[in-house]
What we know:
The complex is a heterodimer of chains A (446) and B (226).
Chain A: H1 2-15, E1 40-50, H2 62-77, E2 80-83, H3 103-108, E3 113-121, E4 129-138, E5 143-153, H4 157-173, E6 182-189, E7 192-199, E8 206-207, E9 215-220, E10 226-231, E11 239-244, E12 250-254, E13 260-265, E14 271-276, E15 283-288, E16 294-296, E17 304-309, E18 315-320, E19 327-332, E20 339-340, E21 348-353, E22 360-365, E23 371-376, E24 383-385, E25 393-398, E26 404-409, E27 416-421, E28 428-429, E29 437-442
Helix pairs in contact in A: 2-4
Chain B: H1 3-15, H2 30-35, E1 81-84, H3 97-115, E2 120-121, H4 131-146, E3 152-157, H5 164-184, E4 192-198, H6 209-215, E5 217-222
Helix pairs in contact in B: 4-5
Amino acid sequence: MTFRTVVITSLCLSVGLAWIIESGATDVFLEATRPDFQKIPLAVAGIDNIGGADSPEGRIRLGNRIEEILKADVRRSLVFSLVDLPGLGIKVGNLGTGPNPEFKKAAEQGVSVIVWGKAGMTNDAKDPDVNMDGYVYDAGSNEMVGGKRYAGSTSVVRLMAHRFADELVFRYTGEPGIARTKIAYVSEQGSARELFVMDYDGHDSRQLTADGFLNLMPRWSPDRRFIVFTAYRNRNTQNIDMIELATGKRWTLVSLSGLNITPALSPDGNFLAFASSHEGNSELYSLDTRTKAMQRLTVHAGGDLSPSWAPSGRELVFASDRSGGPQIFLMSMDGTNVRRLTFEGDYNAAPAWSPRGNWIAYVCRSPKKEYKICLITPDGQKRVQLTAGPGVDDSPSWSPDGRHLVFSSTAGGKSQIYMINADGKDLERITFTGTHNSAPAWSPAS
Amino acid sequence: MGGGKDMKRLQWAMCVPLIFGSIMLGLSGCSSKAIQSGGDSQPAQQGAAKGSDEGGVSQNIPDTSFSGQDGLRGLDKNPSEERVGGNTLTAKADPGSASRQMEEIRAEQAASAAAGLRDVFFAYDSFAISEEGRQVLARNAEWIKSNPGVYVKVEGHCDERGTSAYNLVLGEKRAKAARNYLVELGVAPKQLSIVSYGKERPVCTEHAESCYSQNRRGHVVVKTGK
């Protein structure tokens, strides 16, 4: 805990807020993706413990545990601002199924939404079931407007909290929320690098591959069923493979000679863009996953790589060293209309198009030769350096709501994975174990 | 949340790498399935997971078309119970794979050391062969030419600076530059192959030039496997 706090604190000090390069861009951009967006004040009155049973993991009461996870989800949603009821001088006693009489007082002080609930475990010692009820009070109607009742095994406690958090976001924005999203990444295992998947908050990591050599650069299919990645099945060739998460089943999609790297499935799932050097240097190709027809997209003596799809599926952003060091370029999905997007600095790579379409994140090399995360609008009009300080930052990947990014950084020594708001606030480290965690890829929402 | 949990996760990650369970993609079971509207009901194509040995593009690709969301069900004033769960499974990973890789790497290293093959090093951001590099490659070329039955692989490596992806391209350029120079010196092209590992197989992990310079290399090894 102390170590974690120290690391986070020192990072916050060194990285700080977004460093606005462009003089005209000093307004707070991207506040929940809209400048006029006002966060909705929400209080979690409490998740009561029922049944008196302690959780077998950690000896923490289930209600308290769920409450903590829920509050973290609410804070990270950036849709709500988390209000502390005792801080307003409001003390709720025992919570029932109906709204607490104190809720009205909170509403009068500007709290729009109050959630509460209860959670506990059944007494079956062998196979206990976890139950959770969550309720929502809306100040506008001064009543309980709805709730959820969940049941499941002890292994899905976190998922219950995440699911309830997403229901809250869904009710108040119509968007699915990000609390149930996952992050695929690469983690060092001995001298090998293997694929893992974890929850968006860094918990519950699972190993996907155990090939014993290199698996790199995972990307999700739009329905979250598959991950495409670069696999070195033997040490001498690399392929683009796909793995099905529910079964562990593997397919080799591309096994051309030379490099087969940086795969990316289109938003409709029908095209796989990737880079291959089988015709000489690294070029971009598009594979129609239905007809299996492959189309070459780039023709240039320079190396082209790292395609990322616009949310419309009609355009791609990619990196190319055709003009010297790597720079960011745009083109139509058929390879026409190529134009250069970045001109500042001599090293810009690893672009990622925001799911909202309005920004492209990428790795930029600062004048101090530090590799940091930058954002640029697709029209090139606005450019912002999001991170600063020491360490190599790499592989930016957007949350499906476009409000956050994950990336890897060696700022703390070893490469670890960090989350940051798209406005540069709330830098948070989300991997804490392992010698090298990299290449995070945020899943779509569901 | 403290050290205990992290230790537990560390141990899990180190000791049970082959097992993974509950890949939770939201609600499983009838509730979530019921919410999926129409669209894709075809299961993924079963069968061979491996591409052809000749290389190319697989003709066996499961349906990756987007088929709707695993939706939320919304709040309800009298909520009925939703079962929250996930798929539990064990990875069908080959447990011998890692140790087999290690054995093969050791065999390559031993054969390369016995042959006296040496690595060629590169400047930051560069794939140009230096004068020193030319001398090293000239000695390597003599040995390869006098052993026409051997196959040699040039691995392109990079230091940790820059992106993972672009370093794979840079690593390939380094490997190609070394290979091309060996061919210029008269080595038969069929004896040579290249592979890029980018910055993913460093020999040294310090964040310092003394370490970076060792990682920016064309690693010349005798190929013992396929």
